[in-house]
Amino acid sequence: MLSTHFFPLYRKFKVRIFAGSVIRYPNQCGMRDGKNVATDVKRLKGMLNQLAKQIEARLDKPLFITTTGALQKLLIKISADTDPTSKVDYAETLIAELLAVATEPITDLSERVEEILWEYNFNSRQYFLFYIKRIAEKIQAEETIGGKFELLAFELKKVNQQVMERNMGYTTTYSSLSDVVGNWLSEEMAFLRTKQQLTITFSQSDKVSQDFKIALDLSVAQFSCLVRGLMEKKYILNSNLTELAGFLSNSVITKRSENISVGSFRKKYYNLEEGTKKSVIDMLNKVIDWLLRN
Prior knowledge:
The chain is mainly alpha-helical.
């Protein structure tokens, strides 16, 4: 097995050695005629079938289906193209490279195959969708926006550090694989930034002002009497009057006082006057009448 470090030398002389065979690149001078194209496609199909047999058992199934499916589509395009020279050269170079990698004694063939796909700018729509779907599933698993953002930033870093062959690609319809994936990642990060900012904005707008208090058309005595009745009948379950009085004094404004002292509330709470009780009963009767009519 020859090291892949020597592959550039083979490309220079238009020859590829893999699995004990020698593959010579077609002549790139001039257009191919229909007979030559048919011969090219037949040879490439044989190479692709050989590749599929060697990698199917060792490759992640989704990656296997994506890679072989995209290459099959490329062969169909070659058959229909009037001048498929660049497509033939690309397909032959890539498949030969993958065949060479398939014979390497490595544990993670999937990772190695993807390195080759990136190196040769495998910018097929199938592979792009496969790649971003895998990232999207990771993002979905993250619970926080910070975690999602960190994951996307790491993926973008990996894309930006990819080394790719110049002037080579699966198709000229799309930009390079690093560009389309990088743009997708950048857009996702921009979306998360906007979402995070909106979340902060709405959170701040939903916060109740610390100065907010409930304004009551009741006196301190009436309010204390009402609270006493609710506590005695166990509608208010808090048992610590001091804590409750402290909370209520900071939460309400009565008819004559914007700031109720805890001492005043406690005093009125324990010393209920008859006039106060009668006025509270009248108030409750008005509430009951409204409930009965509505």
